[in-house]
Write a structure and sequence with these properties.
By secondary structure, the chain is mostly helical. The protein is about 80% helix and about 0% strand. The radius of gyration is 23 Å and the shape is elongated.
Length: about 200
């Protein structure tokens, strides 16, 4: 569960970034399917962040002292309640906690307004997803709550950063390609229509 939480933390950034971009594309193009996909991305993001948060809680409750954050803020003699509170003890854990809470608030807001406030919700999703992306970006920069040791920290950082950038560019590329493909299809349809109209014109004797 701890390893899954570590992966989920870095998966949350491209998902939130997609939610922010898709919601604005929906506003600009007037296509509701982009706003709908942004809402689904927010749902998925809430699940992903819950996995990350539960992963860190599990690390504290199972005394995973191979994780630097747990080793620094916990001990075997620490009572159960204090182990849960240790989640919030350091900077990295505090950022994860607030990002987790924001992700859950985003899910609640998106779900409660799925059939109302259609003009307002794309802007709400854009702003909250952008703020959330900033939280996750900061957590990528500062030491991770799931860091194992100083010896592997740099290697894990490079691997996770490469995964983060690759996934982000894939999502952005797919979104841009979809938009350009739709525009190209509309242009082809107009050209075919104009050619059909020309072919139907009566020819002079």
């Amino acid at each position: 569960m701890v390893e899954l939480g570590h992966f989920a933390l870095y998966l949350a950034f491209p998902i939130a970034l997609y939610a922010a971009i898709a919601s604005m594309i929906g506003v600009i193009t007037g296509k509701r399917r982009f706003v709908k996909s942004a809402r689904y991305a927010i749902y998925i993001n809430g699940l992903v962040m819950s996995v990350a948060g539960i992963g860190l809680l599990t690390a504290f409750l199972t005394n995973r002292f191979d994780i630097a954050y747990v080793w620094e803020y916990s001990s075997k003699a620490l009572p159960f309640g204090y182990k849960i509170a240790a989640f919030y003890a350091g900077q990295a854990g505090s950022l994860l906690f607030w990002a987790w809470m924001l992700a859950l608030y985003m899910v609640i807001a998106a779900y409660q307004n799925r059939r109302r406030n259609h003009d307002l919700m794309p802007y709400v999703m854009f702003i909250t997803a952008t703020v959330f992306s900033f939280f996750i970006f900061v957590m990528v920069i500062v030491p991770s709550v799931f860091a194992l040791s100083k010896g592997t920290k740099n290697i894990l950082y490079l691997i996770n950063l490469a995964l983060l950038l690759t996934t982000t560019f894939v999502i952005l590329g797919a979104t841009v390609a979809k938009i350009l493909g739709k525009a190209s299809d509309r242009k082809s349809t107009r050209l075919n229509s104009s050619h059909t109209d020309i072919s139907r014109m009566p020819s002079s004797a």
